[in-house]
Amino acid sequence: MPAPTCSACHSPGDRLHACLSCDDFACWRRARPQQQQQQQARSTEPHIVQHLRSSRHQFALDFVHLAVFCLDCSDYVYDAAITAWLLAAQIRWHAALCDSAEPEAKRPRIVSTGADLSPAQTKYLREHGAVQACGGVRGLLNLGATCYLSVVLQALAHNPLVRGWMLSDGHHPSTCRVGRNAQQQQQLKEQAPVACMACELEAALQAFHSGDAAPLAPVGLLRTMWLLRGDLAGYGQQDAHEWLMALLDTLHVGLTENALMGNGGDTGGGAHAHAHSHLHPCACLVHQAFAGVLQSTVTCSGCGNTTHAHDPMLDISLDIPARPALGARAIDASLNEWLETRTERGARNTRRGTGARANASLTRGQHPVLTLHDCLAHYTRAEPLASGAYACSRCGASSGSAVKQLCVKELPPVLTFQLKRFEHTAGARPSAAHAAKVDAYVRLPLLVDMTPYTAAALAAHSQTAAGLRAAAGHATSSTGSALAASVGGIAVHDRTGLDHSGVSRDTPIPVLDGPGGSATLGKRRTDAVHSNPACQYSLFAVIDHIGHLDTGHYTAYAKHRGQWFKFDDAAVTPADIRDVLGLADETRARQGLSAKGRAYMAFYVKTTLDYHDGAPGPMLPNSAGRDSVPPLPPPMAAMGSGNTRIGETGEWIEDAGVVRTRVNPAGDVKVERRGRKKGSTNAARAKQQQQQQIQQQQQQQKKKQMPPPESGEIRPATKKIPHQARHIHSIANDDDDEEEGELEEHADEEEEGEVDYAFGNGRNTNTTSIPEESSDSDGEALWARISKEKPTDLVPMVQPLLPMTDDRLMYVNPSDLNDLSVSSSSMSMSMQFQSQVMNPPSVPKPGARVVAFSVDENYVDDGDEEDEEEEDAEEEEEEEDDDDFDDVSDFN
Amino acid sequence: MLSETGGIREELLKRFIESGERERLQEIMRTKLHTSGWQDRVKDKCQKIVHENADGIEKLTVDDIAEEVTPFARSSVPEDIKAEILEDIRAFIFRALPETDN
């Protein structure tokens, strides 16, 4: 594929920009000052700027960073609409990458929806809501060595998923069946006083965001924890990690008990309520956010039989290795020399003094510093099991050695690391055994890419490694180093049946992840893998421990709206990345001076969020001659909305976010989305009238196959209407806050966009139907609750554009249809997609998921949004509703 | 002689890019730089530049920041990463040279 080149200098290189008014490409290289030696350097401009000036075009787009350059400002500018569109393109690209990296991953890549508030709602909120002062950052009083509690609470409060879910009414004390209010209502005959951790956490978060800046005393949390977990009671110092796990556990119990009671057991989900295994993931916040799956692979060296064992996990506890695994490498001597001379020359040429030069390179000091990656590499290293410990089932050689390797099979949205800083050393007598703290400095990256440590990467790498070695034999690399032939980190079975006992150290089987690794082909595990965007995480909280093991002190750093803060009990101060990561300590460590590493736990959140919405895969119709796949068990509900029930016609209905999935007894899946009303402008309305006619004809045909499309009545089942309406309201806003919180996290990183999505069912019959209009009812639910009316009906919004398969992306932007200026571009884009995928594969796979994106470019990052505490922290994100205000009368 | 080497250089560059090697190495390098903490340091330095800039943030362009941070960024790249990447490039050239023999 020919590389695009700059039209001025023909180099296919640096920072290519595309002119947005013509089809010119130009790079950022400055023109060679031929005759302009006398003039100032400023007269030479980058080629792209030259082009823009000479052709009087205004804008150019940087390829790599997707930033728009404005000629007049001589700088990059940011516009909400174009940024949102670019983000959407990037999300689609990322999704494609994720799919190609893990084609067998069954998780749906559905991103949450935009806020769907009806204009009436918006108006109500504007009139009756009050914008609160910025909250979210509060100190916590130390109630007597409770610094562990403070840090854990801060880490949870700044966890975008937890915060978002909690603030959007995920768990409301008035409806909690476990907490104190419930007890008053229902007179539960409990032996112990009832305490619900979720209520406490919710209260704490509300207090955080209430706008009050005084430190908060987390008395309720402490009391509840003592009640629920007697083993942690007491005024002594506790371990923060243990406390976090206990908190998550009690939270899980509290949430699932509510879900159990809430559903009334009619979905039969009771069996799954308390248990969480990787086969039946629990639907509560804790597990949806924190739970991942670890995979342990044991490979028998004799026959290569590999067995996998899966374990669910809430966090990863990492040992701190003695020395970095990825440390000093054998480098070609001549190259090293050449490099030395070059850097010395370069260093001499800089205008800095020798003092500065000493600090310039990060490897001066020559003491390698441990990083999180080293710990992870150590964690996922291939370790040989003691001989005799493993009996292979296939070849039965129990004396043979085996190799065990850990990796992560499923990554949770929030990844928590604990660095095991305590080591128990046995003394001469058993009573002398004591724990000492491991003080080694470990540097945490701000962004971590977990791709090399996932099971998929491991599998891919072992294959390539085997292939490479087969090709190269055991030839050493061009570096000539002794360890160069080792391929990092993978236990690969050697089918040539070599005798392993006499094998020399540098033979790659079993391979320990060590230094070396030929750099020529990048065979080290961390090199060879293309990073999967789904595995990128960014740091949002760190818990530090200072001092000795039992008498130390905890402090936390967390990121709030892009700004890091240090939380030292009641004292909250802004902090820099330098403090968070302890870079000063790192410099000392590099120089070999003693440096106390303080980081104890680190919390990372996925930068591209994808999570289950719980919709089971669309199933194949029987008429197509394929066996229909039985529906998946119901309880895979979305975060915070365990709302599954059986409707009146025996249909299984499940609400997740603004999506409702119905599975009728025949096994057909219909997915509806509550959406904003489209067609409020005349042109769009006319278009939609035509479409509606076409639609109706199609529906006539479908009537025979599908149950008549319900007008989307909410079937209350056994619940009271206010609760139902409330629940819908909470669902509606559930996702708002998730992505709201998420967007705050990442607005500056520009990794995520707010997206709507549209669904279809899995039927192949629908190929070219066009979205029909729907009336907004999502907002109506809230509106109804506010005005104490019965919520109106849901209407299926969108007929699928295309048959759904898991490797198709569909682009629909319903909100675009309101806005004429953008509608043409979006429709054309969707048409493009349609045309691209007009020839779908004939066999959608069972369990196929639907992925669709659209971008709500009307999202405006308004800083006050999160603080609207009215109506139970409902968030309002639409500023574009100004357009729709004129059409309020159109709503019933 | 000069034109010859010039021609080879261009040819090599073209091959470098079109075979995807440049992208791959860029990705590797990015990862390495990131895991070594270089990226965080440069970010920190950029923040410092923005804070210390006397003209105020309105007048500051990306180019200005880039100009100021480039010497620091260049000099603080860890040497082992430099060495590895250069080795990779050298290996690529070894592989590619026989094909570009004219």
Polypeptide structure, described:
The complex is a heterodimer of chains A (892) and B (102). Chain A is an alpha+beta fold. Chain B is mostly helical and 102 residues long. Chain A binds chain B through residues 1-3, 11-12, 73-76, 326, 328-329, 331-332, 335-336, 339, 343, 346-347, 350, 352, 357, 360-363, 371, 373, 443, 445-447, 449, 478-479, 519-522, 526-527, 530-531, 576-578, 581, 583, 586, and chain B through 13-14, 17-18, 24, 27-28, 31, 34-41, 43-44, 47, 61-63, 71-72, 75-80, 82-84, 86-88, 90-91.
Show the helix and strand layout.
The complex is a heterodimer of chains A (892) and B (102).
Chain A: E1 17-19, E2 25-26, H1 47-55, E3 59-62, E4 68-70, E5 75-77, H2 80-101, H3 119-128, H4 147-157, H5 160-167, H6 180-186, H7 197-208, H8 219-228, H9 240-263, H10 270-273, H11 285-290, E6 292-300, E7 306-313, E8 316-318, H12 333-349, H13 354-360, E9 370-371, H14 372-379, E10 382-384, E11 402-410, E12 414-419, E13 422-425, E14 434-437, E15 442-443, E16 447-449, H15 455-472, H16 525-528, E17 536-546, E18 553-560, E19 563-568, E20 571-575, H17 577-581, H18 583-590, E21 599-606, E22 643-646, E23 652-656, E24 659-663, E25 669-673, H19 682-703, H20 721-746, E26 755-756, H21 778-787, E27 810-811, H22 820-836, E28 852-855, H23 870-873, H24 881-885
Parallel strand pairs in A: 8-12, 9-15, 27-28
Antiparallel strand pairs in A: 1-2, 1-3, 3-4, 4-5, 6-7, 6-11, 10-11, 12-21, 13-14, 16-17, 17-18, 17-21, 18-19, 19-20, 22-23, 23-24, 24-25, 26-28
Helix pairs in contact in A: 4-9, 5-20, 7-8, 7-9, 20-21
Chain B: H1 2-18, H2 21-35, H3 38-52, H4 62-75, H5 79-96
